[in-house]
Amino acid sequence: MTSTDRVTLHYMPQTRAAGTRIILEELGAPYDLHVMNMKAGENREPGYLSINPLGKVPAIEHRGKLVTEQIAIAIYLGDLFPQAGLTPAVDVPDRGPYLRWLVYYAACFEPALMDKFRNVDPGPITQSVYGSYDLMLDTLEGALSNGPYILGDRLSLADIQWGVALRWTMMFGIVPERPRFVEYRDSLIARPAFAKVWNEDAVLAEQHAAEARA
Ligand SMILES: N[C@@H](CCC(=O)N[C@@H](CS)C(=O)NCC(=O)O)C(=O)O
Q1: CATH of the domain spanning 3-85+193-213, picked from 3.40.50.740, 3.40.50.2300, 3.40.30.10, 3.90.550.10
Q2: Lining residues, ligand 1, CB within 6 Å
Q3: What is the pTM of this model?
Q4: CA torsion sign, 207 to 210 to 212 to 214?
Q5: I need a labelling partner for 153 at 20 to 30 A (CA). Which of 19, 66, 92, 147 fits?
Q6: Alpha carbon distance 65, 62 (integer Å)
């Protein structure tokens, strides 16, 4: 990998982009941060909107291409750095469940959470993309009952994603602290990459708040 192969992560502390940064750390990927101050609205300035019109993070640039959406980024990076051992290869049986549980996060978990958080009625389970909130959560809990990890005995990037997700959603009380969720989250957030990113985020967030007040 040459210096032009470094990944640029468009970043704001204490957002979904922190999960992407933890993934980069876990993979041992070479990366640079482009940090923006969300409290000062920097992600809504023309410079960044010309990169990502949604003004959202995470977004990465790599080899001249932009990738947005945290799960697309996770899959992309996992495939780019298979040597980290966190990515089931395309020709192994775990590949299907790996993709399933990564995509479940974006396709079912987040929509269900947002509806729950805003008191939006998802309607009948046949019309809701995630069935019902309880069914969605029970299904996730069932997947976590087969081993220490979501694929059973094998740690993958899907666990890193879910460790991040369960931490913030249980912290905000959107996901109930079911014993299996707590045990699983705790086993993941004890990993050094999590502490590194969250400690650095706390410093950055404080700086940004001070800058926005000034
Ligand atoms: N669908 C996107 C959602 C990203 C997203 O909502 N990011 C939030 C941070 S947690 C954001 O950038 N918000 C800033 C804004 O909208 O101004 C993904 O999954 O990556």
Answers
A1: 3.40.30.10
A2: 15-16, 38, 43-44, 55-58, 69-70, 106
A3: 0.96
A4: negative
A5: 19
A6: 5
